[in-house]
Write a structure and sequence with these properties.
This protein is α/β, with parallel strands linked by helices. It is built from 10 helices and 10 strands. Strands 1, 2, 3, 4, 5, 6, 7, 8, 9 and 10 form a 10-stranded mixed beta sheet that branches. α2 links the parallel β2 and β3. The chain is globular.
């Protein structure tokens, strides 16, 4: 009798925020399950009552736990649910169209969290369609923010925050907001090219007028929710900077929509306002401009 081959595992939960992209979601899960060691838990949240996507995952991967929402809570709301449900302290996060480039990705996540106990989040190097993929160097630096499609959370620290503000279109808000609150409370975010994630997109959807509009309004929302009143002018300058960037990129459609939605948008979220100190916000903005380099960890 041939002995059963035991697949090595690591105490990491892999989470995937999914929506309508069934084929890409299944490919992401396939890539994750091909890693060695494999995370000992993989869980998925399917947003917006997309039952076809949820059913396809359950059929192809019956061992994977799938959570669904009857309404749209956005990727941030989905990650809130997934991190809460995870059984492991280390939680590796992906979108439905992103996956690890290296077979030992999850072993590297565990090694980095063990080496840097002060790191609340690990930020991977993320590559898109058509981009050259750099070597997995052992350099690292402390940074101010991260990207949810290629990062890993220390669950206990994340749960001490109020989590992501659930927004259907969250560009410019969700990860920046979490990073700002973590840094303000003395936590750290480690960025390293030793973790590499492939995001299977060319980001053409960023030209969608609704996304253009949200990317402006979300910057105003972030300033309203987290900045003291004395720094609201900084938030206004950030909005203007975003508009200039969009114009340079030829993404003019949606700009006026974004400007016009700001008053009612921030009013609808007024109960979530928890301003941070002026010093905390300034320290965060400084860290965004000037990351702190660390010694090689490889």
């Amino acid at each position: 009798m041939t002995p059963e081959v035991r697949i090595p595992t690591v105490p990491v939960t892999a989470i995937i925020a999914a929506y309508q992209r069934i084929g890409q979601t299944l490919e992401t899960l396939k890539r994750i399950e091909a890693c060695r060691p494999i995370p000992d838990e993989i869980i998925v949240h399917v947003d917006g009552h997309q039952t076809m996507c949820g059913d396809a995952i359950r059929q192809a991967f019956p061992e994977i736990k799938v959570f669904t929402s009857s309404e749209s809570i956005g990727p941030g709301g989905g990650r809130n649910r997934l991190i809460s449900e995870a059984r492991n302290e280390w939680v590796a996060s992906f979108d439905d169209d992103s996956f690890p480039l290296d077979a030992d990705y999850f072993g590297r996540v565990a090694a980095l969290f063990a080496k840097y106990p002060e790191a609340a989040i690990l930020r991977a190097a993320i590559y898109h369609q058509g981009e050259s993929i750099n070597p997995d160097r052992g350099s690292a630096e402390w940074v101010a923010d991260f990207i949810g499609c290629g990062c890993a959370y220390r669950r206990s620290v994340f749960l001490k925050t109020s989590g992501y503000v659930p927004l259907t279109v969250a560009y410019g808000m969700e990860e920046v907001d979490i990073g700002l609150r973590l840094v303000a409370n003395g936590h750290k975010i480690l960025k390293t090219p030793w973790l590499r994630v492939y995001h299977d997109t060319r980001l053409r959807h960023h030209a969608n007028p609704d996304i253009v509009a949200a990317s402006i309004a979300n910057r105003a929302l972030l300033a309203f929710l987290r900045y003291p009143v004395s720094l609201w002018p900084v938030g206004a300058v950030q909005c203007l900077g975003r508009i200039r960037f969009l114009l340079k990129q030829g993404r003019s459609e949606g700009i006026w929509q974004g400007i016009g939605m700001i008053p009612r948008y921030i009013w609808s979220k007024r109960q979530l306002r928890r301003p941070l100190s002026c010093a905390s916000v300034i320290a965060f903005l400084k860290l965004r401009r000037q990351p702190v380099q660390l010694e090689s960890q490889g």
